[in-house]
Amino acid sequence: IDPEIVVDAFLSLTLAEIGVLAAMAAGTYVLLGITLRSTLRDLGFKDATLGMIASLAVKGSIPGPMDTAFRFRLAMAYDYSIEESSLSAAMLKALDWIARLLMIPIAIGILLISGQGISGLEWLAVIGLIISVLGIALLVGIVRSQRLARWIGDRLEQAVEWLMRRLDREPPVGLSERVMGLREMGQQLIDTSGLLGLGMQIVIQAAWAAILTLAMYFVGVDFDVLPVAIVWAAVALVYMLPIGPGFIEIAYVLIFGLAIGDFDSPELGLALAAVMIFRLFQWLIPIPIGYGLIFYWQKRDNFNLLSAETAQMPTPSANSETDA
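Above: the chain sequence. Below: its structure as tokens.
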């Protein structure tokens, strides 16, 4: 990729274009706050929105599930019980995962309905669809069957313990019980708040995809708009992995290159510029804002939102021992 193409495309943005992208990103932050409120119904709108911006900062700077633990601590700071805080944090993560799993089928449906088809992206669509179907089927099976949930939890715990021993690291505690906790959480997902939260997560994914698409348009990428849906959905699945900053950008460039069909094309440099602009709003800007909020809250309330205790966040317990 020619760096001059990337820099020139980045600098070609006008103030009006930057303003449009910033407004769309701000709207997406508000949607994230609404999602948090769907799981903590008495939480103020402003507090929920600022809390999710802070959560983005934690997620963008600390690999692993620290953002989930942070949301648990945040709910505790607002005097929610351990059970309510745990359920809210776990539900938000589950809703985010389900929405990401649904993005591939939704993207394929959009392309087919539009009549544009998925030419050149067939393999990516098929692989993503298989992952989505298997992931959703697994979640449904865990919720519906106590026996299956226990079996999956035990096998997962054994596999992770084996891997951690090979890496000479301490394995996480309670993975099996966390899987069991998904059953109770699954019951919550089918009520009004859970359905609202899932709908909002799907809208949020679509909003981020729209910002990326608009950034591509602004820098002059000569690439059909609708296939971006497949690219976004594929990276949304990659984003479910516990990876650090930088890997997502590599995934975008790789998938865009495969979609364009030519890794030497100048279009790939423009696409990289669009990805950088998009990630500026999705990843970089929330970090200073979020940590500023976190340090302010900690000083004001004398409550450590980034305590190591968050690593042992409790999960909802499953009481039933029979299949639902």
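The longest helix spans residues 82-114.
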